[in-house]
Amino acid sequence: MVTIGIFSAFTPQNVMYLLGGLGVTVGVSLISVVLSLIFGSVVGIIQFERLPYFSKFVGTINNVIRNLPLLLIIFFVYFALPKIGIHLPIFWATVVAMSTFESAMLAEIVRGGLESIDIGQFEGARANGLSNVQTMIYIVLPQAYKKMIPPIISQLISLVKDTSLAMGIVLSEMTYRGQIVYAQNSTYIIPVLAVITLVYFILNYGLSLVARWADRKLA
Amino acid sequence: MEKARKRQFGIIATIVLAAVIVLGLLWATATAKKNTAHQDTLARVEKLGRIVWGVKADTKLFGLMNTKTGVPEGFDVDIAKALTVQISKQTGVPLSAQFVPVSASSKMQLIKNTNIDGSVSTMTITPEREKIIDFTKPYFDAGQSILVKKDSGIQSVKDMNDAKYTIIVVVGTTAATEIAKFAPKAKVLAVQDYATGMQALKSGQGQAMSTDNAILYGFATENPAYHIAGGTFTHGPYGIAFDNHQGPMVRQANQALATIKKNGVYNQLIKKWFSDVPGLDWHSLEAK
Amino acid sequence: MALLQDNFPTFLQGFGYTLLSSLIALVGSMILGTGFAIMQIMPQKWVRKLGNIYVQIFRNIPLLVITFFFFLVVSKYVKMSGFTSGTIALMLYTSAFIAETVRAGILSIEGGQMEGARANGLTFGQAMQHIILPQAFRVALPSLGNQFINLVKNSSILAFVGGLDLMYQGNMIAANTFETFGTYMIVGVMYLIITLPLSYYIQHLERKLKQA
Predict the structure, then answer these.
(1) What is the pTM of this model?
(2) Which chains touch B (3 or more CB pairs under 8 A)?
């Protein structure tokens, strides 16, 4: 039974269909990681700067988001936000949910990265006549980002894995498409799950190798 | 000086952000209220020249994804296409049909959220749902049944009224709420979709899957070791669903449905999808 | 508010199952994770390799896929409910992350301590148990806490396999009442009741550790 499944489950059209799902998975992950890098940096810098009241306030909101399950945020954006007039197509709803969640995660990484920079550098740069903002942009951030590359890549790995949660709102990503393929014939389930697992593993393990390489190179 | 400026900035920024959040919430509740009076579906459809139909993608015979084209195929999908053509003729506006896969648990939300214009997705007409959405006249006759292993010895749903049995249902279906009335002692396992449900049945997570007979026929065709036990124990025909207070759209759809039933298109589709199902008297499904 | 009143027992039941699943998975993944962390620093090369393969596999595939594997495939041979399959998947998945955390903790302990202990006649196991691990756990405590928070959040995966947890009950209530906004808000608050205090406590710990 199983061997029959292996051969007939992977017809060219099913393979193309699953690959399309991989495309959706990677697309959502890449867009989300870029967006959350931008928002996460802003929030991280605000927290690092310790502006009276403001940093605490933003930090609290960030903590709330960070401590919610991503699945809940996905359901909320797709099923609850339309109640207040915000309609998003399923792809973008997923991107918004994942970016919100990942921004909160990355903000912590950015803050940690900034705090690891030697304070002497701030003072030195300022003594050389650079303004606060200039110091941040030209001196501190580049160094902090360099240190942050490995954790950022591991967040990207999380994103790739977590995109599978969006099958809960019927986003046509790889795990959902796998399910559609084994809905055709239930003997397909083992081969299809095995192949999906392998694809995720290769993609993410590859990314983690990049992270390790970057870590060694930058250390 | 530096410190004072930072403090000033912090306070101002906090006030601005807090104001934005409060205003945003006020605006949100206001829109939420306003949104209860929805826009007219027919007007939107005519303006955009397309009807976005929610259909199933994991249900044999009604809507199953074709992995080559990426579009689901089945009786529901064909009905939606036929209705689109017919409504286009009636209104004189050229309309195309688009399909969005929905799951049993998401279809109601998507209609309410206007992600889709209408839904032809094996949806049973119930009084509870009619309070929230609009239905057309029935387009398919169905009733709830159970699918069990042929050698399980289970004859009907009554046999399952025992705590040792688990019945698998799908979140958001009528079966999920109805089953408790017919087998109150049995445990219920709700999963997100039919594909998982069937897999769960086969791997022994439960002894029966319960939903409409028409859907179960699709699974019985594919899995010869399983059959439908004891016929139907509820009667619940399917309707095409729209958001509520969509009188004009529902009238158009009803008129279109009556036309395709009269001109033979409907019976052709019944024959196309159900004539090969073993154990089903498909002639009984035809429009008289 | 009526929503919370009407469905309070259901929400509470979900909350209970979420907590139960998280605690079982926490204990299991701590034991497994520590085991695989030790494997990765054993003197034998093949044991290290084995430990590493386990960690890499479970770190790099989605929790949802592992859950489906137990719920739909393994249960054909060994009977298990959605709650059990979800909790086992959660345990295996988290153990890979805990293994990494504990390993980092062990590596941060000065190497001389192991040698010193061995020179005093302790076996590898004894040295691990009495000298290295207690220190490693203290160093790793904040990251372990973060892993527990992730575990609680990830337990929402049970919703996919009928695991009766908070997310599952929330979905059922949302499907029945159509009050998506309110339902998901309540579910969110209930998750925060578990995760937020933990999160603040960990931040406090981190600060203390940094000062020390």
Answers:
(1) 0.86
(2) A, C
